[in-house]
Amino acid sequence: MAFIDKVLQKPSYGWSHENGDLIIPTTSELYAEAFSRINVFATRKNWISGISWLMAVCLIPFAVMAFVYFFSVPLLVIGLLYGMIIMSTHGTIWFHRYSTHKAYTFSHPIWRFITQNLVIKTFPEEIYVVSHHVHHAKSDQPGDPYNAKGGLMYCMLSDVNHQSIAKDLTEEEYGKVAGFLKHTGVWMNSYKTYLKWGSVASPYYTIGLWAVNWAFWYMAFFMIGGHALACALFTGAMFWFVLVRAFNYTGHGKGEIKHVEGVDFDRRNLSVNQFRPGLFSGEWHNNHHLYPSSARAGFLPFQLDFAWIYIFSLYKLGAVSSYRDSKEDFLKKYVTQNQE
């Protein structure tokens, strides 16, 4: 079995049938798997899956306060903009282009730490990064942790059902998985501690950073606009945190071939360039699959890329020391060539 096939914890219903076709579980099977994966009383190794949902649950009181005690149309708009643009763009900048694909490097760890905590923290890097490497290796195939062919709920529940690392890795295999996160600054478990906790990230670091991040941002927002603004922005973070789980379902054509001529050039998978994620967060997904290690994904004139603007601005300020930009290669291969 190839290493990439061993990285993630296999769900109880499996990835594929004996003939190689994707297993599409029922909704009840998906929920049963989810609740078994967050049950920390069954095994402490479920802690990282459990904390992913715990973060979402802990955001609910802010939403209740925002709608019951502080609701106003301006605050609603501010909260939505924070979730749809600020949180979304940060996800592209930090989790996607840096943490997973190393598309750019920071000149000093302080800039990495600032970028990591630029918004309200929602989920551990490990949940995103390791599984995203598998996603690129097995896009739209059995084993892809958020395979759009599995349906909407297959993707919505993937953070707990399909994105945790395997709990029975050898020391050599664990070293390779830990290597996916080494550059992020996340405090990592030794192999001995991994056998205890079932994760790369230290639970003490993860929970501690979460607490400090939330305390800082609530205080900052409170000083600007009181409890009303703080609750509105934490609510915006909650909506992004929940709805982002649907991205790979829509971003891969809902499991169908929906490529648009002259827009989606990578036909090796089902990924498509969507306007809302593209314009709001620089997530031109088909472009990204073509050039996953590029710090820029908005290659065509209409493809605004806020994430790239942030990265390039930090480069000009000296906070980013290097980056990879595949726009020139893209234009040469897919635009200029087609015009000749």
TrEMBL record:
GO MF terms held by the record: oxidoreductase activity, acting on paired donors, with oxidation of a pair of donors resulting in the reduction of molecular oxygen to two molecules of water
Q: A GO biological process this protein is involved in? A: fatty acid metabolic process
For this UniProt record, the keywords arranged alphabetically read as follows:
Fatty acid metabolism, Iron, Lipid metabolism, Membrane, Oxidoreductase, Transmembrane, Transmembrane helix
The membrane topology noted for this protein in its Swiss-Prot or TrEMBL record is:
Multi-pass membrane protein
Compartment(s): Membrane
Q: Is S-adenosyl-L-methionine among the key words of this record?
A: no
Cite the InterPro entries for this sequence.
Acyl-CoA_DS, FA_desaturase_dom
Which residue intervals define the domain Fatty acid desaturase in the entry? 74-293
Where this protein primarily resides, as one coarse class? membrane
Q: Which residue spans traverse the membrane? A: 47-70, 76-95, 194-212, 218-244
GO cellular component annotations of the record = membrane
Similarity field: Belongs to the fatty acid desaturase type 2 family.
What is the name attached to this protein's record? Acyl-CoA desaturase
